[in-house]
Amino acid sequence: GDPESSILVSKIPSRQQTKRVTITTRSEYGNYRESPLATSSYREDIPSPLPSTRPASAMESPTSLHTLGLGPEVHPNDLESNLRRLKPIQVISAYLELMDHVKRMERQADLREELLRRNQKQIEAKDKIIKERDMLVRKMERDLERIDEEPESVSLAPSDASTIGAVRCRFFSSGCPYRLPSMEFHEDRECKFRPTRCPSLTCPIKPPFAKLLEHVQDDHNGSKKGRDRICRNNSNQLVSSYVNIDKEPVFYKTTRMTWVANELICDSFHFFLECMRVPPDWHLWVYIIGSEKDAEKYQATIQLFREDEYGQVADLGYSAQRSYTGQVISIHRSKEEIAEFSLGFMVHDKQIRSLCGTISNAEEQLFGYEVSVYRK
Ligand SMILES: [Zn+2]
Ligand SMILES: [Zn+2]
Protein backbone atom coordinates (compact mmCIF):
# COMPACT_ATOMS: atom_id res chain seq x y z
CA GLY A 1 0.00 0.00 0.00
CA ASP A 2 0.88 3.67 -0.16
CA PRO A 3 2.89 4.52 2.95
CA GLU A 4 1.38 7.36 4.85
CA SER A 5 2.27 9.03 8.06
CA SER A 6 0.09 11.03 10.33
CA ILE A 7 1.10 13.18 13.24
CA LEU A 8 -0.79 13.59 16.45
CA VAL A 9 0.37 16.34 18.76
CA SER A 10 -0.89 16.91 22.26
CA LYS A 11 -2.52 20.24 23.11
CA ILE A 12 -0.66 23.48 23.71
CA PRO A 13 1.60 23.23 26.80
CA SER A 14 -0.22 22.82 30.05
CA ARG A 15 0.51 24.87 33.15
CA GLN A 16 3.33 22.70 34.45
CA GLN A 17 5.20 23.61 31.24
CA THR A 18 5.96 20.12 29.99
CA LYS A 19 5.25 19.15 26.45
CA ARG A 20 4.75 15.74 24.99
CA VAL A 21 4.85 15.32 21.24
CA THR A 22 3.77 11.94 20.02
CA ILE A 23 4.31 10.94 16.45
CA THR A 24 2.43 7.99 15.14
CA THR A 25 3.45 6.33 11.90
CA ARG A 26 1.41 3.87 9.96
CA SER A 27 3.26 0.64 9.36
CA GLU A 28 3.30 -1.05 5.97
CA TYR A 29 0.38 -3.28 6.81
CA GLY A 30 -1.98 -0.51 7.79
CA ASN A 31 -2.06 -0.87 11.57
CA TYR A 32 -0.80 1.99 13.69
CA ARG A 33 2.20 1.74 15.93
CA GLU A 34 3.86 4.29 18.11
CA SER A 35 7.49 4.79 17.24
CA PRO A 36 9.57 4.94 20.43
CA LEU A 37 12.18 7.03 18.61
CA ALA A 38 9.69 9.66 17.60
CA THR A 39 8.34 10.28 21.08
CA SER A 40 9.88 12.93 23.26
CA SER A 41 9.00 14.59 26.51
CA TYR A 42 10.86 17.63 27.77
CA ARG A 43 10.63 20.88 29.70
CA GLU A 44 10.88 24.31 28.22
CA ASP A 45 11.76 27.60 29.86
CA ILE A 46 8.92 29.47 28.27
CA PRO A 47 6.72 31.34 30.71
CA SER A 48 3.21 30.03 30.70
CA PRO A 49 1.02 32.24 28.54
CA LEU A 50 -2.05 31.49 30.63
CA PRO A 51 -1.41 32.36 34.28
CA SER A 52 -4.31 31.31 36.48
CA THR A 53 -3.84 34.17 38.96
CA ARG A 54 -3.06 37.79 38.35
CA PRO A 55 0.33 39.17 39.37
CA ALA A 56 0.35 40.23 43.04
CA SER A 57 1.13 43.85 42.15
CA ALA A 58 -2.13 44.23 40.28
CA MET A 59 -4.11 42.97 43.28
CA GLU A 60 -2.44 45.33 45.74
CA SER A 61 -2.65 48.46 43.61
CA PRO A 62 -4.73 51.12 45.39
CA THR A 63 -6.36 52.09 42.13
CA SER A 64 -7.09 48.52 41.14
CA LEU A 65 -10.10 48.27 38.86
CA HIS A 66 -11.59 45.94 41.45
CA THR A 67 -11.27 48.51 44.20
CA LEU A 68 -12.98 51.02 41.94
CA GLY A 69 -15.82 48.64 41.24
CA LEU A 70 -14.83 48.29 37.56
CA GLY A 71 -13.58 44.68 37.51
CA PRO A 72 -14.57 42.20 34.82
CA GLU A 73 -17.24 40.64 37.05
CA VAL A 74 -19.13 43.96 37.38
CA HIS A 75 -22.51 43.90 35.64
CA PRO A 76 -22.60 46.30 32.63
CA ASN A 77 -25.61 48.10 34.16
CA ASP A 78 -23.64 48.90 37.33
CA LEU A 79 -20.54 49.95 35.36
CA GLU A 80 -21.94 53.33 34.28
CA SER A 81 -23.18 54.32 37.75
CA ASN A 82 -19.85 53.22 39.24
CA LEU A 83 -17.95 55.36 36.72
CA ARG A 84 -20.09 58.44 37.51
CA ARG A 85 -19.16 58.16 41.18
CA LEU A 86 -15.37 58.22 40.44
CA LYS A 87 -13.16 61.31 40.86
CA PRO A 88 -11.24 62.43 37.69
CA ILE A 89 -7.92 61.25 39.20
CA GLN A 90 -9.46 57.84 39.75
CA VAL A 91 -10.68 57.73 36.12
CA ILE A 92 -7.14 58.46 34.89
CA SER A 93 -5.74 55.81 37.18
CA ALA A 94 -8.37 53.32 36.00
CA TYR A 95 -7.56 54.19 32.40
CA LEU A 96 -3.83 53.63 33.00
CA GLU A 97 -4.48 50.29 34.65
CA LEU A 98 -6.74 49.29 31.79
CA MET A 99 -3.96 50.11 29.32
CA ASP A 100 -1.58 48.07 31.41
CA HIS A 101 -4.03 45.20 31.32
CA VAL A 102 -4.37 45.42 27.53
CA LYS A 103 -0.58 45.43 27.12
CA ARG A 104 -0.26 42.35 29.33
CA MET A 105 -2.86 40.54 27.26
CA GLU A 106 -1.06 41.51 24.07
CA ARG A 107 2.18 40.08 25.44
CA GLN A 108 0.37 36.88 26.34
CA ALA A 109 -1.05 36.64 22.82
CA ASP A 110 2.45 37.13 21.38
CA LEU A 111 3.81 34.39 23.60
CA ARG A 112 1.04 32.04 22.60
CA GLU A 113 1.76 32.70 18.94
CA GLU A 114 5.48 32.12 19.49
CA LEU A 115 4.71 28.79 21.15
CA LEU A 116 2.49 27.74 18.27
CA ARG A 117 5.25 28.62 15.82
CA ARG A 118 7.76 26.52 17.75
CA ASN A 119 5.33 23.62 17.85
CA GLN A 120 4.76 23.89 14.12
CA LYS A 121 8.51 23.88 13.47
CA GLN A 122 8.98 20.78 15.58
CA ILE A 123 6.16 19.02 13.75
CA GLU A 124 7.69 19.91 10.40
CA ALA A 125 11.12 18.66 11.48
CA LYS A 126 9.66 15.35 12.67
CA ASP A 127 7.61 15.07 9.48
CA LYS A 128 10.78 15.49 7.43
CA ILE A 129 12.56 12.76 9.39
CA ILE A 130 9.63 10.40 8.82
CA LYS A 131 9.60 11.12 5.09
CA GLU A 132 13.34 10.54 4.83
CA ARG A 133 13.00 7.28 6.71
CA ASP A 134 10.16 6.16 4.41
CA MET A 135 12.26 6.96 1.36
CA LEU A 136 15.16 4.98 2.76
CA VAL A 137 12.91 2.00 3.42
CA ARG A 138 11.50 2.16 -0.11
CA LYS A 139 14.99 2.39 -1.60
CA MET A 140 16.13 -0.61 0.43
CA GLU A 141 13.08 -2.56 -0.71
CA ARG A 142 13.87 -1.77 -4.33
CA ASP A 143 17.50 -2.80 -3.87
CA LEU A 144 16.38 -6.06 -2.30
CA GLU A 145 14.00 -6.76 -5.19
CA ARG A 146 16.82 -6.14 -7.61
CA ILE A 147 19.15 -8.48 -5.78
CA ASP A 148 16.44 -11.14 -5.84
CA GLU A 149 16.04 -10.74 -9.60
CA GLU A 150 19.74 -10.61 -10.33
CA PRO A 151 20.49 -14.33 -10.89
CA GLU A 152 17.84 -14.40 -13.64
CA SER A 153 18.65 -11.16 -15.40
CA VAL A 154 22.36 -11.74 -15.68
CA SER A 155 22.87 -13.81 -18.77
CA LEU A 156 26.61 -14.09 -18.96
CA ALA A 157 28.89 -16.89 -19.92
CA PRO A 158 29.70 -18.93 -16.80
CA SER A 159 33.36 -17.94 -17.02
CA ASP A 160 32.76 -14.19 -16.56
CA ALA A 161 29.79 -14.44 -14.24
CA SER A 162 31.91 -14.30 -11.12
CA THR A 163 34.28 -11.57 -12.27
CA ILE A 164 32.40 -9.04 -14.44
CA GLY A 165 28.80 -9.82 -13.57
CA ALA A 166 28.69 -9.05 -9.89
CA VAL A 167 30.56 -7.84 -6.86
CA ARG A 168 30.48 -9.92 -3.72
CA CYS A 169 29.51 -8.35 -0.44
CA ARG A 170 32.65 -7.78 1.61
CA PHE A 171 31.18 -9.95 4.35
CA PHE A 172 31.01 -12.85 1.91
CA SER A 173 33.45 -14.89 4.00
CA SER A 174 31.13 -14.58 6.98
CA GLY A 175 28.35 -16.08 4.91
CA CYS A 176 26.58 -13.22 3.09
CA PRO A 177 25.29 -14.66 -0.20
CA TYR A 178 24.57 -11.30 -1.87
CA ARG A 179 26.24 -10.21 -5.06
CA LEU A 180 25.66 -6.70 -6.33
CA PRO A 181 25.99 -5.62 -9.91
CA SER A 182 29.08 -3.47 -10.30
CA MET A 183 29.13 -0.01 -11.84
CA GLU A 184 31.13 -1.48 -14.70
CA PHE A 185 28.37 -4.00 -15.22
CA HIS A 186 25.73 -1.25 -15.10
CA GLU A 187 27.55 0.85 -17.70
CA ASP A 188 28.30 -2.14 -19.87
CA ARG A 189 25.05 -4.05 -19.74
CA GLU A 190 22.24 -2.21 -18.00
CA CYS A 191 22.42 1.55 -18.44
CA LYS A 192 19.54 2.91 -20.48
CA PHE A 193 21.79 5.73 -21.68
CA ARG A 194 24.73 3.72 -22.90
CA PRO A 195 25.37 4.06 -26.63
CA THR A 196 23.58 1.47 -28.72
CA ARG A 197 23.40 0.75 -32.44
CA CYS A 198 20.92 2.02 -34.96
CA PRO A 199 18.67 -0.50 -36.76
CA SER A 200 19.93 1.00 -40.03
CA LEU A 201 22.94 -1.22 -40.72
CA THR A 202 24.74 1.59 -42.58
CA CYS A 203 24.25 4.25 -39.88
CA PRO A 204 27.40 5.30 -37.99
CA ILE A 205 25.50 7.03 -35.15
CA LYS A 206 25.46 5.40 -31.73
CA PRO A 207 22.45 6.97 -30.02
CA PRO A 208 21.74 6.44 -26.31
CA PHE A 209 19.45 3.41 -25.94
CA ALA A 210 16.66 5.50 -24.40
CA LYS A 211 16.69 7.87 -27.39
CA LEU A 212 16.99 5.30 -30.18
CA LEU A 213 13.42 5.57 -31.50
CA GLU A 214 13.73 9.34 -31.50
CA HIS A 215 16.84 8.96 -33.66
CA VAL A 216 15.04 6.57 -36.05
CA GLN A 217 12.20 9.06 -36.39
CA ASP A 218 14.41 12.11 -36.91
CA ASP A 219 17.32 10.72 -38.95
CA HIS A 220 15.78 7.87 -40.93
CA ASN A 221 12.51 9.29 -42.22
CA GLY A 222 13.99 9.62 -45.72
CA SER A 223 14.57 13.37 -45.57
CA LYS A 224 18.07 13.35 -44.11
CA LYS A 225 20.92 13.17 -46.60
CA GLY A 226 23.26 10.20 -46.26
CA ARG A 227 20.86 8.35 -43.93
CA ASP A 228 18.91 5.29 -45.04
CA ARG A 229 15.18 5.38 -44.73
CA ILE A 230 13.80 2.89 -42.21
CA CYS A 231 10.37 1.50 -43.15
CA ARG A 232 8.03 2.08 -40.25
CA ASN A 233 5.07 -0.25 -39.74
CA ASN A 234 2.52 -0.66 -37.03
CA SER A 235 1.98 -4.40 -37.17
CA ASN A 236 3.67 -7.58 -35.98
CA GLN A 237 3.51 -9.08 -39.48
CA LEU A 238 4.75 -7.93 -42.86
CA VAL A 239 4.92 -9.19 -46.49
CA SER A 240 7.29 -7.56 -48.98
CA SER A 241 10.27 -8.26 -51.19
CA TYR A 242 13.84 -7.10 -51.64
CA VAL A 243 15.23 -5.64 -54.83
CA ASN A 244 18.73 -4.76 -55.94
CA ILE A 245 18.93 -1.31 -57.51
CA ASP A 246 22.68 -1.49 -58.14
CA LYS A 247 23.94 -1.78 -61.73
CA GLU A 248 25.91 -4.86 -60.84
CA PRO A 249 23.84 -8.05 -60.38
CA VAL A 250 23.78 -9.02 -56.73
CA PHE A 251 25.43 -12.42 -57.11
CA TYR A 252 28.48 -10.86 -58.82
CA LYS A 253 29.17 -8.63 -55.87
CA THR A 254 32.04 -9.61 -53.65
CA THR A 255 31.51 -7.06 -50.88
CA ARG A 256 29.05 -6.92 -48.01
CA MET A 257 25.63 -5.48 -48.82
CA THR A 258 22.74 -4.54 -46.54
CA TRP A 259 19.07 -3.72 -47.11
CA VAL A 260 16.68 -1.24 -45.56
CA ALA A 261 15.34 -2.17 -42.10
CA ASN A 262 11.62 -2.86 -41.69
CA GLU A 263 9.90 -2.08 -38.43
CA LEU A 264 7.46 -4.42 -36.69
CA ILE A 265 5.60 -3.81 -33.43
CA CYS A 266 4.50 -6.41 -30.92
CA ASP A 267 3.17 -5.61 -27.44
CA SER A 268 4.93 -2.31 -26.90
CA PHE A 269 8.28 -3.43 -28.30
CA HIS A 270 9.77 -2.28 -31.59
CA PHE A 271 11.42 -4.84 -33.88
CA PHE A 272 13.35 -4.48 -37.12
CA LEU A 273 13.80 -7.07 -39.85
CA GLU A 274 17.34 -6.90 -41.20
CA CYS A 275 18.92 -8.38 -44.31
CA MET A 276 22.63 -8.57 -45.13
CA ARG A 277 24.65 -10.45 -47.70
CA VAL A 278 28.21 -11.41 -46.81
CA PRO A 279 29.14 -13.35 -49.96
CA PRO A 280 28.30 -16.14 -50.35
CA ASP A 281 25.94 -16.08 -47.34
CA TRP A 282 22.74 -14.20 -46.62
CA HIS A 283 21.74 -13.30 -43.06
CA LEU A 284 18.22 -12.33 -42.09
CA TRP A 285 17.26 -11.56 -38.50
CA VAL A 286 14.87 -9.54 -36.37
CA TYR A 287 16.30 -7.01 -33.92
CA ILE A 288 14.39 -6.12 -30.79
CA ILE A 289 14.89 -2.67 -29.25
CA GLY A 290 15.44 -4.27 -25.88
CA SER A 291 17.77 -6.25 -23.68
CA GLU A 292 18.91 -9.85 -24.01
CA LYS A 293 16.22 -10.68 -21.49
CA ASP A 294 13.51 -9.00 -23.60
CA ALA A 295 14.81 -10.87 -26.66
CA GLU A 296 14.30 -14.21 -24.92
CA LYS A 297 10.55 -13.60 -24.79
CA TYR A 298 9.97 -13.14 -28.53
CA GLN A 299 10.21 -15.29 -31.62
CA ALA A 300 10.22 -14.45 -35.29
CA THR A 301 9.22 -16.51 -38.31
CA ILE A 302 10.77 -15.54 -41.63
CA GLN A 303 9.57 -17.14 -44.85
CA LEU A 304 11.29 -16.61 -48.22
CA PHE A 305 9.63 -17.29 -51.58
CA ARG A 306 9.64 -16.22 -55.22
CA GLU A 307 8.08 -12.78 -55.40
CA ASP A 308 6.00 -13.68 -58.50
CA GLU A 309 4.48 -16.63 -56.65
CA TYR A 310 3.10 -14.65 -53.73
CA GLY A 311 -0.58 -15.25 -53.09
CA GLN A 312 -0.76 -18.45 -55.14
CA VAL A 313 -3.50 -20.80 -54.07
CA ALA A 314 -2.62 -23.80 -52.01
CA ASP A 315 -2.72 -26.50 -54.71
CA LEU A 316 -0.31 -24.60 -56.93
CA GLY A 317 1.87 -23.69 -53.97
CA TYR A 318 5.33 -22.25 -54.10
CA SER A 319 7.90 -23.76 -56.43
CA ALA A 320 10.40 -23.26 -53.66
CA GLN A 321 10.41 -21.61 -50.28
CA ARG A 322 12.51 -21.51 -47.18
CA SER A 323 11.44 -20.63 -43.71
CA TYR A 324 13.00 -20.12 -40.33
CA THR A 325 11.71 -19.70 -36.79
CA GLY A 326 13.96 -18.48 -34.03
CA GLN A 327 14.49 -16.00 -31.26
CA VAL A 328 14.71 -12.30 -31.97
CA ILE A 329 18.09 -10.64 -31.31
CA SER A 330 18.84 -7.76 -28.96
CA ILE A 331 19.86 -4.51 -30.68
CA HIS A 332 23.01 -4.63 -28.56
CA ARG A 333 24.43 -7.43 -30.75
CA SER A 334 26.49 -6.28 -33.73
CA LYS A 335 25.84 -7.44 -37.29
CA GLU A 336 29.38 -8.85 -37.37
CA GLU A 337 28.64 -11.00 -34.34
CA ILE A 338 25.34 -12.13 -35.88
CA ALA A 339 27.06 -13.14 -39.13
CA GLU A 340 30.04 -14.74 -37.39
CA PHE A 341 27.92 -16.97 -35.15
CA SER A 342 25.00 -17.28 -37.56
CA LEU A 343 22.57 -16.05 -34.89
CA GLY A 344 19.71 -15.42 -37.31
CA PHE A 345 18.47 -17.08 -40.50
CA MET A 346 21.45 -17.93 -42.70
CA VAL A 347 21.03 -19.05 -46.32
CA HIS A 348 23.61 -19.66 -49.01
CA ASP A 349 23.65 -17.95 -52.43
CA LYS A 350 22.87 -21.33 -53.98
CA GLN A 351 19.68 -21.56 -51.92
CA ILE A 352 18.64 -17.97 -52.56
CA ARG A 353 19.27 -17.88 -56.31
CA SER A 354 16.27 -20.04 -57.16
CA LEU A 355 14.00 -17.63 -55.23
CA CYS A 356 15.12 -14.56 -57.12
CA GLY A 357 13.48 -13.04 -60.18
CA THR A 358 14.79 -11.33 -63.25
CA ILE A 359 16.46 -8.00 -63.89
CA SER A 360 14.17 -5.45 -65.52
CA ASN A 361 14.23 -1.65 -65.69
CA ALA A 362 17.66 -1.62 -64.04
CA GLU A 363 16.10 -3.29 -61.02
CA GLU A 364 16.86 -6.83 -59.99
CA GLN A 365 13.96 -8.58 -58.31
CA LEU A 366 15.22 -10.57 -55.37
CA PHE A 367 13.13 -12.84 -53.15
CA GLY A 368 9.83 -12.14 -51.45
CA TYR A 369 9.46 -12.52 -47.70
CA GLU A 370 6.89 -12.76 -44.98
CA VAL A 371 7.91 -12.03 -41.40
CA SER A 372 6.01 -12.13 -38.14
CA VAL A 373 7.00 -11.53 -34.54
CA TYR A 374 5.17 -13.00 -31.57
CA ARG A 375 5.55 -13.78 -27.90
CA LYS A 376 6.90 -17.27 -27.25
ZN1 LIG B 1 23.60 4.54 -16.14
ZN1 LIG C 1 20.76 5.74 -37.44
TrEMBL record:
Residues 102-150 form a coiled coil. InterPro entries: Znf_RING/FYVE/PHD, Znf_SIAH. Residues 164-221 form the SIAH-type domain. Keywords: Coiled coil, Metal-binding, Zinc, Zinc-finger. Residues 25-63 are annotated as: Disordered. Gene3D superfamilies: Zinc/RING finger domain, C3HC4 (zinc finger). GO terms for molecular function: zinc ion binding. One of its GO terms (biological process) is protein ubiquitination. The keyword Repressor does not apply. This is SIAH-type domain-containing protein. The lineage of its organism: Eukaryota, Metazoa, Ecdysozoa, Arthropoda, Crustacea.
